[in-house]
Design a protein that fits this description.
The chain is mainly β. The protein has a single domain, classed as Porin (Beta Barrel), CATH 2.40.160. It contains one helix and eight strands; from the N terminus they run E-E-E-E-E-E-H-E-E. Strands 1-2-3-4-5-6-7-8 form an eight-stranded antiparallel barrel. A hairpin with a 4-residue loop joins strand 2 and strand 3. The radius of gyration is 18 Å and the shape is elongated. The two termini are 29 Å apart.
Length: 133
Amino acid sequence: MVLSFELKAQTTAVFYVPQDFSVVAIYKPNEKAGFYVGGRYMVSIPAQYTYTTPYAFVNRFGVDVSIKRGVSLLGGGYFTDPPSFINTTFQPEMWVRINFIHLLTGKESDLDLTGSIRISKEFYYGLGLSYPL
């Protein structure tokens, strides 16, 4: 009796978006597609005699699709800052994500640098790390 298994690569990545003060986490269970979710921690200075605590909220989510080895497109949405239950608006966004070492060498390394640029209403960029599981 012979048993064989074929395993596909799983990848995780985390990058920071300094203009938006957000952290975006990506999970790709296979080589072709995955998903991402981003969050922001917000601290505001309250008005006099008012106390509000800092809070975190999810400000983006979407899918991550590979277009070639080392390059991915992330598409989804973006919530307003801060989101409210009545006036929350949804703006489409598109990210181009590049794994630099993977793109240059063609090899999946243990740890890779990730760079992202956002194509939407404003120009954002993000830098982070990618790690195959």
